[in-house]
Amino acid sequence: MPQTIIADIGRDLLAALDARAGLLTLRTILLRYKASGVTAAQVAALLHELRPATQEGPLEDVILDALDMVTGWCGPQLRVWDDHAS
Length: 86
What we know:
By secondary structure, the protein is an all-alpha fold. The protein has helices at about 5-20, 25-35, 40-50, 60-70. Helix 1 (about 5-20) packs across helix 3, helix 2 crosses helix 4 (about 60-70) and helix 3 (about 40-50) packs antiparallel against helix 4. The protein starts with a helix and ends in a 15-residue tail after the last helix.
């Protein structure tokens, strides 16, 4: 996976987080990365990297919601990766 795709993910996710994007917007971004071949593990790692800078603030909740969609800790209608280990 080229590093530029991972950098793009970070940039897009940060923009969505800063804009206080809703769950469906975040899910759309995550689906786009899945379609590009990015794995759940790669996105989860990025979200874990972003989390410390946002702890105890409103952005942390959004990051945790996105992480739930990536790891499968959400309802099936929001889940992005069926196999959260991929």
